[in-house]
Write a structure and sequence with these properties.
heterodimer; A: about 325 residues; alpha+beta; Nonspecific Lipid-transfer Protein, Chain A; 7 helices; 17 strands; about 20% helix; B: about 400 residues; alpha/beta; Peroxisomal Thiolase, Chain A, domain 1; ten-stranded mixed β-sheet; two-stranded antiparallel ribbon; 15 helices; 12 strands
Chain lengths: ~325, ~400
């Protein structure tokens, strides 16, 4: 397989170059080296092999049932029941519909391996007939996952990835209410069989005089904020090493935010090649977030702010951290 | 019969977002030297050392304690590391107590240290996502790591399950008030990472959601630093106290519990933090405490998240389950209330240098008991997936 088509365990963009830098504190230099602690495995899945092979090859979920007390555990994370003095368990085939044990969390700020996947849910699904819960990713087919879509007792359907590797990532679940009865009933439903709602940029109506006035005020405040950034070391650190051109569209007008290694620039108008686009009817939504009077993440959750690429939540978080740092600088 | 064990010395380094100036070798040495000075002792007088270091990957070394044995001057003596997730510090204190109470040693160093933010994510060009990733290696490696398990989302699972059962509790305006209160407490902790970061409830409410339902200002911050306690059995402790003039703060109760890591029937009860409940009540039984709200003056609680602080307080008997908000609404932890909760600012404002955190809490509890002339403090640690681990110590000032 050519280097271009090989799928790597560690994404190339995550790898640092050999090198480092000097950090100077109180006139003293400290050496900071790029480094990594890496270990590769050919890791046996041991007694879990049947479970993962069933996911990969048969699109089926397995559990284990205690031959003494009858408790059904999914996933089958043991072969003997510790509650029954280690009585043996037997493999049982499960269905792929169940209900949430409890309301699942939604991750908006992910670890470095998952920043391209936010927002995502991970919760505990009790499959019909099971006594324990399966930890599983949760998605909605209807846009961005927000609180309230999936709750305790929500009926969920397990969906299988088209490309499966014999890992827990081979499956995820969606609310059964978003599927047709036929899809819910179908064993081994594939992700390609789902009707994913496409992200469509919201249309903005013709600007009113009020919209334009708000835009002008917002542009002025953002420009002032960008000016303040020049002397705000803490806030500059929050966007250091980061480069993004963001097209912002509001009912009252368009502007461009440029993040450039600690600098923030704002200008009215459009750009041909933005890294991503933000859309809000009222420019105040963006301004409030940037001025630490509100949260941009919260605005995206409440659909007051639309983002063209979910992976750019990373940039949103940087802007929010910058906003807080700027506010703290002003307090001092 | 077991011997009484007390704290005779304590010290912490500054807790900082990043210590460019020190490795964990020197951080551990700084805090140890400070604690020994506080106890008026030489390291030559110490029989054993117990290391509280959570994560090998943070220190970029497996068995990261091994260089510390000589660096702390403890070569050729007993040394043992404890690692139990977020509860590492409290568990290490518990282990040291057991050895001294059993008569194995007369004195011991309890040294917690962590250097988390050397980890760095070269994609976002920031440390935090990589720190969270490293903690993510603590999740179940077959069923959970690969689907995005994090400490925050696993604790959020417990909190949301609790909110399923108690939808009127953990109101956002109350969690915001608690965070703001802790930000006031931290003002008097010169070693805290966020000593000067006072926030209003409105700012907390406006802060971004990191993992639903947690907002940024409701979550502990990752920190680098060290904290050390010097323990001694009764006879030695009294002699040291006579020398320093500082009263001994005794460890009169210890309790621990680890729950199941899988949830469901006969497994983890998601709406509860039974680890905290069992650990606290085991410690109460050992200390002879019947009513914790009346018996305890200070709680130094491992506040990984404000919501969890409220649930843990309920689990430990300071308010009813489902009435966590009464901590504020009934004035239990507000100024002048029955409980002084996290006078150090907690881990949200002091910072969470994981292995060192609970030891820093004990440092604070001990100092506050002496300075305020109060009688009892509770020190708590929580850790692992879905709040699986809990450890509690009762500190008592004669």
């Amino acid at each position: 397989m050519s280097p271009e088509t090989r799928k790597m365990i560690i994404p190339l963009e995550a790898l640092p170059e050999v090198g480092g830098h000097i950090q100077t504190i109180d006139g003293q230099d400290y050496l900071v080296l790029n480094d990594a602690m890496f270990t590769f495995y050919q890791r046996s899945q041991g007694e879990f092999s049947a479970f993962f092979l069933a996911l990969r090859d048969k699109k089926k979920l397995l559990g284990c049932k205690c031959t003494k007390c009858g408790i059904v555990r999914v996933p089958p994370f043991l072969t003997r029941c510790p509650d029954c003095d280690f009585a043996p368990t037997e493999t049982v085939e499960m269905g792929d519909v169940g209900r949430m044990l409890c309301t699942p969390p939604i991750t908006y700020f992910a670890n470095s391996l998952f920043q391209g996947q936010v927002p995502f849910g991970r919760g505990r699904l009790v499959l019909d007939g099971a006594d324990t819960a399966l930890s599983i990713n949760i998605y909605t087919t209807k846009g961005i996952l927000v609180p309230g879509i999936v709750k305790k007792d929500t009926e969920m359907k397990v969906v299988f990835r088209d490309e499966r590797n014999g890992e827990i990532t081979d499956i995820f679940c969606v609310p059964a209410s978003e599927l047709t009865p036929e899809q819910v009933a179908k064993p081994g439903l594939l992700e390609s069989e789902l009707d994913w709602e496409a992200a469509v940029e919201p249309a903005l109506g013709a600007p009113t005089a009020d919209d334009e006035a708000k835009f002008n005020a917002g542009l002025a405040e953002l420009s002032a904020l960008a000016e303040e950034m020049k002397g705000a070391e803490r806030a500059r650190r929050d966007i250091a090493g980061w480069h993004r051109v963001v097209q912002v569209k509001s009912a009252g007008g368009f502007l461009v935010l440029e993040i450039d290694d600690g600098d923030l620039r704002v200008r009215q108008g459009s750009t041909d090649k933005p890294d991503f686009t933000l859309v809000c009817t009222d420019i105040s939504t963006l301004v409030n977030g940037m001025a630490y009077r509100g949260s941009l993440t919260q605005a995206i959750i409440t659909k007051d702010l639309w983002i063209s690429l979910n992976r750019e939540f990373t940039t949103i978080f940087k802007l929010e951290r910058m906003a807080r740092s700027l506010a703290r600088t002003k307090k001092v | 019969m077991s011997r009484r064990v007390g704290i005779v010395g304590a010290a912490v380094t500054p807790f900082k977002a990043k210590w460019y100036e020190k490795t964990y070798y020197e951080l551990a040495q700084m805090a140890t030297a400070g604690a020994l000075k506080d106890a008026g002792m030489s390291v030559k007088d110490c029989d054993a050392v117990f290391y509280a270091i959570y994560n090998d990957i943070f220190e970029r070394t497996c068995i990261p304690e091994h260089p510390l044995q000589g660096i702390l001057g403890m070569q050729d003596k007993f040394g043992m590391r404890v690692s139990t997730g977020g509860a590492t510090g409290a568990y290490t204190l518990s282990a040291a107590h057991a050895y001294l109470a059993a008569g194995r040693f007369k004195t011991a160093i309890v040294c917690g240290v962590e250097k988390a933010t050397d980890c760095f994510d070269f994609m976002s060009m920031s440390a935090t996502p990589e720190v969270i990733k490293v903690i993510g290696w603590s999740g179940d490696s077959f069923f959970e790591q690969k689907i995005g398990w994090t400490a925050a989302d696993s604790y959020a699972e417990v909190v949301l399950a609790y909110m399923d059962e108690h939808p009127d509790d953990l109101k956002p305006e109350i969690t915001a008030q608690i965070s703001a209160l802790l930000s006031q407490h931290v003002k008097t902790n010169p070693f805290a990472q966020r000593q000067h970061d006072q926030v209003t409830p409105e700012e907390v409410m406006n802060s971004r959601i990191v993992v639903y339902p947690f907002k940024e200002l409701e979550i502990c911050v990752y920190t680098e630093g060290a904290a050390v306690l010097i323990l001694a059995e009764e006879e030695t402790a009294l002699a040291i106290s006579k020398n320093t003039g500082t009263p001994v703060v005794w460890i009169t109760g210890v309790g621990e519990a680890n729950e199941h890591s899988f949830a469901g029937k006969n497994h983890k009860v998601m709406p509860r933090i039974m680890s905290d409940h069992l650990a606290a009540y085991r410690a109460y039984e050992m200390a002879g405490i019947k009513d914790p709200l009346e018996a305890i003056d200070i709680v130094e609680l491992h506040d990984a998240f404000v919501h969890q602080l409220e649930i843990t307080m309920a689990e430990m008997g300071f308010c009813p389950l489902g009435r966590g908000d009464s901590l504020i609404e009934d004035g239990i932890i507000t100024p002048g209330g029955k409980i002084l909760c996290n006078p150090c600012g907690g881990l949200i404002y002091s910072g969470h240098a994981v292995g060192a955190s609970n030891i820093m809490s004990a440092w604070s509890g001990r100092n506050e008991l002496i300075a305020r002339g109060l009688r009892r403090a509770l020190v708590h640690g929580t850790g692992s997936t879905i709040a699986q681990y809990g450890a509690v110590e009762i500190l008592e000032h004669d």
